[in-house]
Design brief:
Length: about 325
Amino acid sequence: MKRTIAIVCGGDTSEHDVSMRSAAGIETFLDQERYIVYKVEIHAGKWEAILEDGRRAPVDRNDFSFSVRGERVRPDFAYITIHGAPGENGVLQGYFDLINMPYSTCNLLVEAMTYDKFVLNNYMRALGVKVADSLLIKRGHDHEVSDQDIIGRIGLPCFVKPASGGSSFGTTKVKSAEALRPAIDLALKEGEDVMVEAFMQGTEITCGCYKTKTVSHVFPITEVVTTNEFFDYDAKYNGQVQEITPARIPDSVRDRVQQLTSTIYDVLGCSGIIRIDYIITEGNTINLLEINTTPGMTVTSFIPQQVRAAGLDIKQVMTDIIEDKF
């Protein structure tokens, strides 16, 4: 009997369209001879399975089932590829835990912690991982701290970004005091809290990893080069970037980054594929930028690139992740 896989996608954040593109990528990566695959889109209060003929079937949230040609289908496994809420902040993971359905990502606690960049940075700092200095501004309290206080603490240039979320929506590289308040207002449109983070000059890289009960793979590192102010949405999704795999860094730095990625995976208790972004600063210092627990999975995304560079088969990687939960 083939297992039925639901690729859970969509969401209600600015990352909805990115999620749908990742879902299309994952659908092509999955072993169609081994699995029956449906996409389930969560959007605007609706949970709908997308059927072969393009019709949509409402999902019963009591057990995540839906009707196909008059028969009730309950997937065996949920491959979560919602970037942002509710797929990357722990909400869906808690739901699937309650209905006893295995899923592809880390658990609720890890998702919630990695989704909040300020929480994650402080946790990682406590473990001895180097991160940029930052401060948190909460909605409704944004005028309680002056621009001068922020700049005095963090300096210029700096990054202003939503504390939660991804794909660089609402993120601004601030170079002047006059640009600080508009950047905070922009970030508040994307989330409740804003993180102001010190700028670090260096080489930006990213490293993927996945582990199961029987295999452990840390992928080759990708170097990210863009002429934009930073690795923003256009750089990520509209081709305004060079993605060089393997990264042009010394072998010793490569080894340290891969070891750190593996260690963070284990310390957090991650599951499925994660991707960790770093910046290498002066003296080959490794600084953590972000942990992505539902990384982009389009054909041109970092993870598929790194899987190919590692000489692995993306179809087998997907199968490893699914079968590890049974």
